[in-house]
Amino acid sequence: MRYRVGATALIPCEVVYACGHALVDLNNFVPFSNISPDDKLCAWTAIWRDLVLKKYVKIDKLVVVASGDCYNALVDGEKIELSGIKTFYFTYPFDGNVDYMKETLRNFVEFLGGDMDEGLMNEVYKLKKLALEIDRKRVLGKADNASTFKILVSSSDLMGNIEKYRREIESFEEEDVNYDYRVALIGIPPIYRDFHEVLKEIGFLVVYDEMPYEFARLSGRSLDEIAKNYVNYTFARNIKFRINFIKNEIKKRKAEAVIHFTQFACHHKLEDSIFRRELDVPFLTIEADLPSRTPEQARIRLEAFAERLREYI
User: How many Cβ atoms are within 10 Å of 173's Cβ, its own excluded?
Assistant: First the structure.
């Protein structure tokens, strides 16, 4: 691999690997970090910013998602660019315009060097299909919360190495899971590193991990396919598009309740009242700030939510 390319949010990893580079999703380091940011609005973006600036995570180039998904990332990404790291600003079309997406992808390829091996795109495509099979096993109660989450969330960057990710998938073991309630976990991936294990202990089977599922389901074997698929990234579209998608997944996966994980100072937190109004299922919001294990207060609220569900289900 020629370069380690850091990303601030979801970008098409297929393109990065096809251009001969390794992708590093900076967000995947955050829940395991002990850094206390020098200054912050959102802890997520401030921590990955400091991880790069202090060289705890080494990258050669940076891709900032400047529209769609995360808006706090823009300034923290600019601080990294000012340190001397070459930066590309990736913009999703809010209206799902495929031609706009194709133009963005062509510029992105040029930033990465201009040459592509579409055979590598196909390799990534096949690995994501395998990740989706594991997701389906969890829906059937045949896979664990945490192990499935690890596979799905790692499909954003393939753990920085295609073969490493392939080995992770091949080592996955199916198991029968005991649970009391089927829940959809929407919002950002939890900054609490043991959150999925805690949910299992309380009796929740996560049948839908919203954002990590996006990482696995969006793919393609050519730039045209990638453009057509990635314009449907729900976090980069309007809220109505995303709500309809979530409703369909809740129905399809037979989720009995929703847990909305939000982050302090994240604009997605403002969507909470909309989801409460639009999603006709029992609903709990968990808000976090800095990375840690799941605090006792959050655990107590989850346990109380499980007690409440006994009245509905």
Answer: 7
CA angle 225-148-191, nearest 5°? 95
Instruction: Quote the CA–CA distance of 302 and 199 in Å, as a whole number.
Output: 8
Boundary-marking domain end, from 52, 81, 111: 111
From the list 109, 218, 123, 208, the residue with the least C-alpha distance to 165 is: 123
Predicted local confidence at residue 39, as pLDDT: 86
Q: Which residues contact 286 (CB under 8 A, 6 or more apart)?
A: 190, 259, 260, 261, 262, 298, 301, 302
Sheet strand arrangement including 204-209 = 204-209, 181-187, 257-263, 283-288
Category of 200 on φ-ψ map: left (φ > 0), alpha (ψ -120 to 50) or beta: alpha
Task: List, for the chain, all residue ranges whose pLDDT scores fall below the cut of 50.
Answer: none
Number of structural domains found in the chain: 2
**CA angle in degrees (0–180, nearest 5) for 292-145-29:** 40
- Does residue 294 share a domain with residue 185? yes
- Please report whether residue 102 resides in a domain: yes
CB 211 within 8 A of CB 151: no
Whether the pTM exceeds 0.85: the reply is yes
Domain that residue 303 falls in: 133-312
Cα–Cα dist 248/93, whole Å: 23
Residue 243 and residue 162 share a domain: yes
C-beta separation of 92 from 68 below 8 A: yes
Q: Note whether 171 and 68 are same-domain residues.
A: no
Read off the pLDDT of residues 57-96 as tens digits, 9 standing for 90 and up: 999 999 999 877 777 788 899 999 999 999 999 999 999 9
Q: Which two tokens stand for residue 75?
A: 């300034």
- Asked whether residue 204 falls in the same domain as residue 86, the answer is no
Last residue of a domain, which of 78, 111, 144? 111
233 in the same domain as 145? yes
Model pLDDT for residues 36-60, shown as the tens digit of each residue: 898 888 899 999 999 999 999 999 9
